[in-house]
Amino acid sequence: MKRCPICGKRFEGRLEMCPECYSDRRELVKVERIVELVRCPRCGRYRLGGRWREMKFEEALTETILNSLRVHPEFRVEDVEIRPLTRGEVGRYSVRVAGTLEGETVEDERLTEVRVRGTVCERCCREAGGYYESIVQVRADGRDLEDEELEKVREIILKILDKERDNQKAFVSKVVERREGIDFYLGDRNVGRKIARSIVNELGGRIVESKKIHTRRDGRDVYRFTYAVRLPGYREGDVVEDEGRVCVVTNRRLGKGITIDGKSVNLKNPKVIARKEDLLEAVVVDCDEYVVEILHPVSNEVVRAKRPKGEFKPGDIVNVVEYGERLYVIKIPRSLYRSS
Questions:
Q1: For the chain, how big is the Rg over CA atoms in Å?
Q2: What pLDDT shows up at residue 340?
Q3: In 3D, which of 212, 251, 216 has the Cα closest to residue 234?
Q4: What separation, in Å, do the N-terminal and C-terminal C-alpha atoms of the chain show?
Q5: Rounded distance between C-alpha atoms, residue 9 and residue 211, angstroms
């Protein structure tokens, strides 16, 4: 047991005086006199630890000050309070550090000046300069892209870019709308590949990948990649002919359909013969086990067609399509005819 030479209090430990007197006369904590934050004026990201990160000012300030703290080896920090002494982000701040020293509860307070320096980050420099490593081209076979599909594609892109927020090349530098579809220019080739695959996973179709030499860097060829996404020409509710069978598309992503007889099939090489919005409606006049008599929607004549699977009775409204000089009666769940 030692006696403090300052106050006479008995204490234990390796210090030359009691913890209370020691904290009054020694620096337990050192803080940089000036703390500088580097912020991109274009996107608002902060550079910490050599990386540009998306965070709030308070988070960036706290992390920067904590990283700059120098603490006495015997001081066990339990709490740090950072408080502004002036208005606004920049200015003087109080840094109060509380903890224990040789088992005694003590605290220390230091002042620092916070400054913010603006520097355009690498990501924004590239984005502003139109930099890109890949192009995602979105097209649909034999038809125009629908608004619903375009909205889904943009949703996929935003979702992936949000997951890649720390990637300095995860951005869209340009969007080009064309008659045949839409092109997205991406700063990172791997992000472009992820987007293309996600579009196909969500909307079906296929990807054709190609590349061409853009430049040479350090003696190596640098390529730009193009991911051509081809969405199916058919959609849910469209009527297609596939290997001699007339089918209704039930899942375009998986390439599934249902025949007139109600059999589920995997579509192999479907040809669209009628869009869902172009199907005609007809009234059932009579039916038996094999045939349905309907009132032709154009000529108003009573015609006969093969009865599809399902229940029918006079007065029912059914969809019909003419193909190969034959009339087909279509009866599928009404949910497939929701508006796009």
A1: 35
A2: 40
A3: 251
A4: 84
A5: 78
Interatomic CA distance for residues 244 and 313, integer angstroms: 28
The answer to whether 29 touches 39, Cβ cutoff 8 Å, is no
Q: Give, for 302, the enclosing helix (H) or strand (E).
A: strand 302-306
Give the global pTM.
0.71
Q: Which residues contact 8 (CB under 8 A, 6 or more apart)?
A: none
Residue 171 CA to residue 179 CA, distance in Å, equals: 24
Dump pLDDT digits (tens) for 132-158.
999 999 999 888 898 989 999 999 999
Strand pairing category for 220-231 and 134-140: parallel
What stretches of 141-290 adopt beta strand conformation (E)? 172-178, 181-186, 206-217, 220-231, 239-242, 245-251, 256-259, 264-266, 271-274, 280-287
Q: Identify whether the C-beta of residue 123 lies closer than 8 Å to the C-beta of residue 212.
A: no
The CA distance from 238 to 153, in Å, is 21
Closest CA to 278 of 241, 322, 246, 309: 322
What percent of the chain is modeled with pLDDT above 90? 36
Q: Cα angle vertex 173, ends 171, 177, to 5°? A: 120
Structure tokens at 231: 């969405």
Among 183, 75, 97, smallest CA distance to 139 is for 183
* Residue 205, number of CB atoms within 10 A of its CB: 22
Q: Tell me the helix, strand and coil percentages in the chain, rounded to 5.
A: 20, 45, 35
Amino acid 82 reads I
Pairing mode, strands 70-71 and 51-53: unpaired
Joined tokens for residue 61? 């300030």
Instruction: For residue 334, give the DSSP letter.
Output: G
CA dihedral (329, 331, 336, 340) positive or negative: positive
Say which residue the tokens 């969500």 belong to: 202
Count Cβ neighbours within 10 Å for each residue of 30-45 and write b for 16 or more, e otherwise: ebbeebebbbbeeeeb
